[in-house]
Amino acid sequence: MSSTNIRKTSIKTYHRFIDEAGDTTFYLKAKKNAIGTLGVSTVFMLGMVKISDPLDEVRLKITELQNSIANDPFYDVPSVAKKKLKCGYYLHATDDIPEIRKLFFDLINTINCSLEVVVGRKSIERFETKHKGKEEYFYADLLSHLLKNKLTKHDKLVLNISERGKSTKHTNLHLALEKAKQRFITKNDEIKIKTNVLFEVQSPTNEPLLNLADYLCWAVQRVFEKGEMRYYNLVRDKISLVIDLYDTEKYSTWGNYYDNKNNPLTIKNKISPQIH
């Protein structure tokens, strides 16, 4: 077998890496609406990354970058020092300084990968009715939409998911999977579901490939929260699909589906905070 063929067989195409951006906070004290207040996001999103390079090679690239940052005196800043002291430095877009973000975004552009994102606009009414006031049900709803079209292409699909409290307990993940199957069957009752979906809940401190998903999701979040385009534009070719799930005004034309070529995100996708 040639070295090229060996390399191809080492690419595990049935693995995906899932992380989130934003938060699932809906209330302040005394059940006051928190959405869009200081430190609380207007949207929550889940993103799934597919990596088409050998996973070990990509993992090594990210680990080497993390180690070089941790050992470089130039990056001796509080956000890095705190992680080094607690659990060892790892890349996390929300915490990292701009210089580090640029390093990792440049590295991401050397990796053959793509991101699909489901964006959930936060609404108190929807949260209380559709999701029964439970953050884990909100998470499961988004995850089901991320999975519903992934149930026929592979015999096995391993979902490596960033740990998130009750939301990533196996009962909630399997709830999301059942919802995904129901949604698929409703529209494709003649097509048989064949994919065996496995969940691997992991910490981003232990799985560097989740840090890749974190950064790409964060770039999309900046568009919806801030109308900030520069990070999205930097990695736009890697962001294959964004679904603004609850943008009901655009349902009839599929206008809530965005790709990186024909219908990319723009500054108009910024969500204005609700009036409290």
Quaternary structure classification? single chain
The largest pleated sheet is described as: 7 strands, mixed
* Strand coverage percent: 15-25%
CATH class: Alpha Beta
What is the count of distinct domains? 1
Give a written overview of the molecule:
By secondary structure, the protein is an alpha/beta fold. The chain has one domain: Nucleotidyltransferase, domain 5, CATH 3.30.420. It has nine helices and seven strands, in the order αββαααβααβαβααββ. Strands 5-4-1-2-3-6-7 form a seven-stranded mixed beta sheet. Helix 6 packs across helix 7. It is globular and about 55 Å long. Residues 1-10 have low confidence and may be disordered.
